[in-house]
Write a structure and sequence with these properties.
Length: 173
């Protein structure tokens, strides 16, 4: 008699807790951010800098969303287009916050030193990152991984864009 395979007897892995998720968020987002900062000038050798920056920003946001879904928040599946758009929206909001902080600094001080600009930018970036983490954790990836307290809940379709008239459970009794 054959023993059951390890994959059939393994329990679903629980989603990481808030602290583990935050550390993973910083590592993934920060790592991709550092790689992006090297990629932009390289890509800018073949196209205008603004275009290279936009291309790398879009690519890095897509990659980060994939990593956040699978690794940071442990959803167990790749994100759909809705989650990609929500993640891009949170990244855009973070960009607006950091830009506004630097603009306010320039409005208050006509020629701030590089040290002040960096301090304001990094502070705003840190706050925006914490806000982005909370948005992603509490709203975008709130469905999270397969936690044991959710195993008895009814299963929903995993696709983000399936309208109700296409889902099989819409016709179930």
């Amino acid at each position: 008699m054959e023993s059951p395979s390890p994959s059939s007897t393994a329990k679903p892995q629980a989603a990481p807790g808030p602290l583990a998720s935050f550390v993973r968020f910083v590592v993934c987002g920060g790592g991709i951010g550092v790689l992006s900062s090297f990629a932009v000038p390289l890509v800018a050798l073949t196209m205008p800098w603004a275009v290279a920056n936009a291309v790398i920003t879009v690519a890095s946001t897509l990659l980060c969303t994939e990593l956040h879904a699978l690794f940071t928040f442990g959803t167990g599946r790749r994100p759909g287009w809705r989650r990609h758009l929500q993640s891009a929206g949170s990244a855009t909001a973070a960009y607006v916050v950091t830009s506004a902080a630097v603009l306010v600094l320039h409005a208050l001080q006509s020629s701030p030193s590089m040290l002040w600009q960096q301090a304001v930018y990094l502070s705003a970036s840190g706050l925006a990152g914490i806000g982005r983490f909370l948005v992603l954790r509490l709203f975008v990836f709130a469905g999270g991984g397969s936690r044991t307290d959710r195993t008895t809940a009814p299963k929903r379709a995993t696709s983000d864009w399936n309208p109700p008239f296409v889902r099989a459970e819409a016709f179930a009794g």
